[in-house]
Every structure is written in C-alpha cells, then in structure tokens.
Amino acid sequence: MNRKLKNILSQNEQPIESGDREIQEKIVYRQHWLPWLLLFLTWLGEAFIFSFEFNEHKLLLFAKDSNSRLG
C-alpha cells in the first residue's frame, strides 16, 4: 500500500504542462484501522448483549411455563 502511495505522490510532483490537456486530480484516501476495529467490536458486543438478553427472556418464559404445568 505504501508503494502505491509513493508512486502516486511522485507522479503528482512532476511538472504540469499547460495547454489544452485536461488536468485530472487524484485524491487518495487512507483510512486508519482503529475506527473499523472499534466499530466491529461494538457490533460484536451488541450481538452478545442481545443474545444474552434473548436467552434470559427465553429461560424466564420456560420457567413460568413449567411452573404452570406443575401447579
């Protein structure tokens, strides 16, 4: 990735010829990995919490159902 970035930067440093040629701008976005990691961990945590709450609710319903059958 760094090699590609260096190649692009070196191409941009070359003098621009004035004339009838259309000038094209190259914008290079380089994102850091930390925000993506935090987003993934947030989704993972939310999925864990949701599954825990769903299972707890399911267990409570099962306990109420089994108590009604016994009594």
Describe the structure.
The chain is an all-alpha fold and 71 residues long. The longest helix has 38 residues. The termini are far apart.
Describe this protein with a few key phrases:
single chain; 71 residues; mainly alpha; 2 helices; 70% helix; rod-shaped
Query: What percentage of the residues does DSSP assign to strands (E)?
Result: under 5%
- Categorize the overall geometry: rod-shaped
The number of helical runs is: 2
Order of helices and strands: HH
- The stretches of 5 or more residues where confidence is low (pLDDT under 50) are none
Report the structural category: mainly alpha
What distance separates the N and C termini? 69 Å
Largest sheet data? none
> What radius of gyration results from the CA coordinates?
29 Å
Helix content: over 70%
Rounded mean pLDDT score: 75
Number of distinct beta strands: 0
Summarize the topology.
Blueprint: H1 2-13, H2 33-70
Overview in brief:
By secondary structure, the chain is an all-alpha fold. The chain has helices at residues 2-13, 33-70.
